[in-house]
Amino acid sequence: MSTKLSLDEIIDQMLSTVGDSKEQIFEISEKSRKEYESLQKELNDVRDNVASVIDKTERTEMQARFARNRLAEVSRHFKDYTNEDVKKAYERANELQVNLAVLQQEEKQLRERRDTIERRLLQLEGTMERAETLVSQVTVVYNFLAGDLKEVGEMVEDAKEKQQFGLKIIEAQEEERKRVAREIHDGPAQMIANVLLRSELVERVKNEQGMDKALEEIQDLRTMIKSSLAEVRRIIYDLRPMALDDLGLVPTLNKYLSNLEEDTNMNVRFSSLGQSDIRLSPNLEVGLFRIVQEAVQNAYKHAEPSDVQVKIELKPSYVSIVIKDDGKGFDPSAANENSFGLMGMRERINALGGELTIDSAPGKGTVIMLHLTFDGSAGQDSDSA
Asked: Where in this chain does the entry annotate a coiled-coil region (predicted)?
């Protein structure tokens, strides 16, 4: 009893610390966002001023050139002009030359300020992106501490096993975040950075090589943006397939397994029995999809199968799913470093109120069967019931 109270106290302290950290990160994000908005407005003003000064400089430069020509004309034929005419010509040329120098200096300062603001905006974008990522990560940790860890603590009596299980969950979450971060950094982030750099060159290309060449650059930018958008959509699909919301469980599984077959050397066969158009509640569809996803990914990573079969039978009162592979199999009763995936599947099916059985042996492949019953309305989405 004292051990449980001690653990609860530790978790409460951690919750307080994590909550305070989340607030601090959020404040940093908000301050950065406000500074970003202020600098963005200033940048627009500076760009307008640069354009205005350039226009004034060009007009003044033309006037100064005319004034110098006038002064040269008066100097060559000074006998034909009065002293007052010569004086006015000199003063006019000198005044315009001074104005031109002032405008050129102002343009230089404005350009430097523009470049400084643009660099600062890029820094702030990175700060806001990192802050948002940290807030998301801290929220996951907070929710885990507030809910999952306490529930696991009630189920797992041994303190060492409890600690290992909690660390495994955090490790899996961190690995998933790293994977997503790498995919975004190596894919869309790099493409968007290239688009930004290329977009700044379009105007220079137009001025130096003509409009046709600039249009080619714009077409290349469109292609890069389309590729980046496709990569973002793929990452979003991996995080949560939107097809689950639009099409339902069976079509989404069919699409996912087809894509898996294309991306691996496995032969993946999918079959559906019963009423494939039945819609379940969102938490059931997500939970069942994740269980199948975990099962086939475990097979691909650890069992080295050549053939994987997934069968689903969907009825108004129950759903049954069988995942079978011809891989190298394992001993389900022996704990090993890969058992965390099986534990995760059991946790999911237990949370859904279903049953999960695993039949495997070394060299004999693996069969995973899950069964979930519900009444005609409990399992279905209210919009489609």
From this structure: 29-56, 86-134
Neighbours of 275 (CB within 10 A): 11
The CB density around residue 290, as the number of other CB atoms within 10 Å, is 14
Position 102, amino acid: V
Give pLDDT tens digits for 131-159: 778 877 777 777 766 665 555 555 544 55
CA distance 250 to 368: 18
If we measure between CA atoms, which residue out of 293, 297, 305, 284 comes closest to residue 377?
284
DSSP three-state, residue 357: strand
The full DSSP string for 115-158 is HHHHHHHHHHHHHHHHHHHHHHHHHHHHHIIIIIHHHHHHH---
Q: What is the pLDDT confidence band of residue 76, given thresholds at 50, 70 and 90?
A: confident
Confidence band (pLDDT; 50, 70, 90) for 197? confident
Encoded tokens for 167: 């660390």
pLDDT confidence band for 75 (50 / 70 / 90): confident
Query: CA-CA distance, 155 to 162, in Å (whole number)?
Result: 9
pLDDT at 166: 58
User: Which residue has tokens 């470093």?
Assistant: 337
Weakest-pLDDT range from 240-244, 329-333, 346-350: 240-244
- Whole-angstrom CA distances from 124 to 40, 45, 99, 119, 209 are 11, 19, 37, 9, 34
How many other CB atoms are found less than 10 A from the CB of residue 266? 21
CA distance 206 to 202: 6
- What is each CA distance from 112 to 43, 46, 105, 107, in whole angstroms? 11, 10, 11, 9
Task: Give CA–CA dist 324/296, Å, rounded.
Answer: 9
Please state, as a whole number, how many other Cβ atoms lie within 10 Å of the Cβ of residue 257: 20
Q: Which two tokens stand for residue 183?
A: 């995919």
* CA atoms lying within 13 Å on the CB side of residue 25: 19
pLDDT of 329 above 50: yes
Residue 274 backbone zone (phi > 0: left; psi -120 to 50: alpha; other: beta): left
Residue type, 385: A
